[in-house]
Amino acid sequence: MKLWLVRHARPIVQEGICYGATDLPADPQATLEAARALAAALPTGLAVRCSPLRRCLQLAQALHALRPDLAHETDARLAEMDFGTWEGQRWDAIGRTAFEAWMADFARHRCGGGESVAVLMARVGQAMAEVRAGHRDVLWISHAGVVRAARMLARGVPAPAQASDWPADGVGFGAAHCLDLCDPGETPAAQPQA
Protein backbone atom coordinates (compact mmCIF):
# COMPACT_ATOMS: atom_id res chain seq x y z
CA MET A 1 0.00 0.00 0.00
CA LYS A 2 1.13 3.56 -0.64
CA LEU A 3 1.20 6.63 1.55
CA TRP A 4 1.31 9.85 -0.46
CA LEU A 5 2.83 12.70 1.53
CA VAL A 6 2.04 16.19 0.25
CA ARG A 7 3.32 19.42 1.73
CA HIS A 8 1.18 22.55 1.69
CA ALA A 9 1.98 25.43 -0.67
CA ARG A 10 4.29 28.25 0.43
CA PRO A 11 2.84 29.99 3.50
CA ILE A 12 2.46 33.74 3.74
CA VAL A 13 5.19 34.44 6.25
CA GLN A 14 8.50 36.28 6.25
CA GLU A 15 11.54 34.15 5.40
CA GLY A 16 13.48 32.91 8.45
CA ILE A 17 10.50 32.80 10.84
CA CYS A 18 9.81 29.74 12.98
CA TYR A 19 6.14 29.08 12.26
CA GLY A 20 5.63 25.36 13.05
CA ALA A 21 2.08 24.98 14.36
CA THR A 22 1.13 28.63 13.78
CA ASP A 23 -2.05 28.69 11.70
CA LEU A 24 -0.84 30.67 8.68
CA PRO A 25 -2.53 30.86 5.27
CA ALA A 26 -0.70 29.72 2.15
CA ASP A 27 -0.25 31.77 -0.98
CA PRO A 28 -3.52 31.30 -2.94
CA GLN A 29 -1.90 31.16 -6.39
CA ALA A 30 0.77 28.70 -5.26
CA THR A 31 -1.97 26.60 -3.66
CA LEU A 32 -3.97 26.50 -6.90
CA GLU A 33 -0.88 25.57 -8.93
CA ALA A 34 -0.02 22.77 -6.50
CA ALA A 35 -3.61 21.50 -6.56
CA ARG A 36 -3.61 21.41 -10.37
CA ALA A 37 -0.34 19.45 -10.50
CA LEU A 38 -1.52 17.02 -7.83
CA ALA A 39 -4.93 16.55 -9.45
CA ALA A 40 -3.22 15.43 -12.63
CA ALA A 41 -0.71 13.15 -10.88
CA LEU A 42 -2.56 11.42 -8.03
CA PRO A 43 -4.28 8.08 -8.57
CA THR A 44 -7.95 7.49 -7.85
CA GLY A 45 -9.17 5.68 -4.75
CA LEU A 46 -7.07 7.55 -2.20
CA ALA A 47 -8.35 8.22 1.30
CA VAL A 48 -7.34 11.81 2.12
CA ARG A 49 -6.28 13.02 5.56
CA CYS A 50 -5.30 16.61 6.17
CA SER A 51 -3.63 18.66 8.88
CA PRO A 52 -6.14 21.03 10.50
CA LEU A 53 -3.88 24.02 9.84
CA ARG A 54 -5.22 26.51 7.30
CA ARG A 55 -2.35 26.21 4.81
CA CYS A 56 -3.07 22.48 4.44
CA LEU A 57 -6.85 22.88 4.39
CA GLN A 58 -6.51 25.38 1.53
CA LEU A 59 -4.70 22.78 -0.56
CA ALA A 60 -7.12 20.00 0.39
CA GLN A 61 -10.09 22.17 -0.62
CA ALA A 62 -8.49 23.30 -3.89
CA LEU A 63 -7.63 19.69 -4.74
CA HIS A 64 -11.15 18.51 -3.94
CA ALA A 65 -12.60 21.22 -6.21
CA LEU A 66 -10.56 19.76 -9.08
CA ARG A 67 -10.91 16.11 -8.05
CA PRO A 68 -14.22 15.47 -6.26
CA ASP A 69 -13.04 11.91 -5.51
CA LEU A 70 -10.43 13.37 -3.14
CA ALA A 71 -12.60 14.54 -0.25
CA HIS A 72 -10.61 14.96 2.95
CA GLU A 73 -10.93 14.46 6.68
CA THR A 74 -8.82 16.43 9.13
CA ASP A 75 -6.41 14.68 11.47
CA ALA A 76 -4.72 16.71 14.21
CA ARG A 77 -1.83 14.21 14.28
CA LEU A 78 -0.76 15.57 10.88
CA ALA A 79 -0.18 19.12 12.18
CA GLU A 80 3.34 20.52 12.15
CA MET A 81 5.47 20.36 15.30
CA ASP A 82 4.54 22.96 17.92
CA PHE A 83 7.57 25.07 18.77
CA GLY A 84 5.92 26.77 21.77
CA THR A 85 7.34 30.22 22.52
CA TRP A 86 9.63 29.97 19.48
CA GLU A 87 6.60 30.28 17.18
CA GLY A 88 6.62 33.57 15.29
CA GLN A 89 10.23 34.36 16.18
CA ARG A 90 13.09 34.59 13.73
CA TRP A 91 15.20 31.43 13.93
CA ASP A 92 18.31 33.59 14.37
CA ALA A 93 16.68 35.40 17.34
CA ILE A 94 15.77 32.30 19.36
CA GLY A 95 19.04 32.33 21.23
CA ARG A 96 22.08 30.15 20.96
CA THR A 97 21.65 28.56 24.39
CA ALA A 98 18.06 27.48 23.67
CA PHE A 99 18.98 26.15 20.26
CA GLU A 100 22.01 24.26 21.61
CA ALA A 101 19.82 22.65 24.29
CA TRP A 102 17.66 21.26 21.47
CA MET A 103 20.67 20.00 19.51
CA ALA A 104 22.06 18.32 22.66
CA ASP A 105 18.83 16.33 23.17
CA PHE A 106 17.27 16.52 19.72
CA ALA A 107 14.60 13.86 20.14
CA ARG A 108 13.34 14.76 23.62
CA HIS A 109 13.85 18.50 24.03
CA ARG A 110 10.57 20.43 24.03
CA CYS A 111 11.33 23.37 21.76
CA GLY A 112 10.12 26.61 23.34
CA GLY A 113 8.12 24.52 25.81
CA GLY A 114 6.10 23.06 22.92
CA GLU A 115 6.63 19.62 21.44
CA SER A 116 9.68 17.45 21.06
CA VAL A 117 10.63 15.56 17.92
CA ALA A 118 9.81 12.34 19.81
CA VAL A 119 6.25 13.58 20.46
CA LEU A 120 5.88 14.49 16.78
CA MET A 121 7.20 11.07 15.77
CA ALA A 122 4.81 9.29 18.16
CA ARG A 123 1.69 10.97 16.80
CA VAL A 124 2.79 10.49 13.19
CA GLY A 125 3.53 6.85 14.05
CA GLN A 126 -0.01 6.39 15.36
CA ALA A 127 -1.43 7.81 12.13
CA MET A 128 0.86 5.55 10.06
CA ALA A 129 -0.26 2.50 12.02
CA GLU A 130 -3.83 3.30 11.01
CA VAL A 131 -2.78 3.59 7.37
CA ARG A 132 -1.16 0.15 7.53
CA ALA A 133 -4.18 -1.36 9.27
CA GLY A 134 -6.55 0.14 6.70
CA HIS A 135 -4.94 -1.65 3.73
CA ARG A 136 -5.78 1.28 1.46
CA ASP A 137 -3.67 3.88 -0.31
CA VAL A 138 -3.78 7.17 1.57
CA LEU A 139 -2.87 10.79 0.87
CA TRP A 140 -1.72 13.07 3.68
CA ILE A 141 -1.72 16.82 3.13
CA SER A 142 0.64 18.01 5.78
CA HIS A 143 3.96 19.67 6.65
CA ALA A 144 7.71 19.21 6.20
CA GLY A 145 8.22 17.90 9.75
CA VAL A 146 5.46 15.31 9.37
CA VAL A 147 6.87 14.19 6.00
CA ARG A 148 10.35 13.77 7.50
CA ALA A 149 8.94 11.89 10.51
CA ALA A 150 6.94 9.55 8.25
CA ARG A 151 9.97 8.82 6.11
CA MET A 152 12.05 7.91 9.19
CA LEU A 153 9.27 5.74 10.60
CA ALA A 154 8.87 3.94 7.26
CA ARG A 155 12.57 3.02 7.54
CA GLY A 156 11.97 1.64 11.04
CA VAL A 157 13.57 4.53 12.95
CA PRO A 158 11.30 5.52 15.89
CA ALA A 159 13.18 8.76 16.68
CA PRO A 160 16.47 10.38 15.67
CA ALA A 161 19.32 9.79 18.09
CA GLN A 162 20.81 13.18 17.21
CA ALA A 163 20.02 16.15 14.98
CA SER A 164 22.20 14.84 12.16
CA ASP A 165 19.91 11.77 11.90
CA TRP A 166 16.91 13.97 10.97
CA PRO A 167 16.38 13.87 7.18
CA ALA A 168 17.96 16.96 5.65
CA ASP A 169 16.18 16.53 2.33
CA GLY A 170 12.55 17.46 2.67
CA VAL A 171 9.75 17.84 0.21
CA GLY A 172 9.16 21.20 -1.45
CA PHE A 173 6.11 23.38 -1.00
CA GLY A 174 3.16 21.85 -2.85
CA ALA A 175 5.17 18.74 -3.74
CA ALA A 176 4.51 15.06 -3.05
CA HIS A 177 6.55 12.10 -1.85
CA CYS A 178 5.24 8.55 -2.05
CA LEU A 179 6.13 5.81 0.42
CA ASP A 180 5.50 2.13 -0.22
CA LEU A 181 4.47 0.80 3.18
CA CYS A 182 5.45 -2.83 3.55
CA ASP A 183 4.61 -5.40 6.14
CA PRO A 184 6.78 -5.09 9.26
CA GLY A 185 10.18 -6.58 8.63
CA GLU A 186 10.21 -5.72 4.93
CA THR A 187 12.25 -2.87 3.50
CA PRO A 188 10.09 -0.01 2.25
CA ALA A 189 10.91 1.71 -1.00
CA ALA A 190 10.35 5.44 -1.40
CA GLN A 191 9.89 7.20 -4.70
CA PRO A 192 9.83 10.97 -4.88
CA GLN A 193 6.90 12.18 -6.94
CA ALA A 194 6.33 15.56 -8.56
From TrEMBL:
One of its GO terms (molecular function) is phosphatase activity. Pfam families: His_Phos_1. It comes from the Bacteria. GO terms for cellular component: cytoplasm. PANTHER family: BROAD-SPECIFICITY PHOSPHATASE YOR283W-RELATED, HISTIDINE PHOSPHATASE FAMILY PROTEIN-RELATED. This is Phosphoglycerate kinase. It comes from Ramlibacter tataouinensis (strain ATCC BAA-407 / DSM 14655 / LMG 21543 / TTB310).
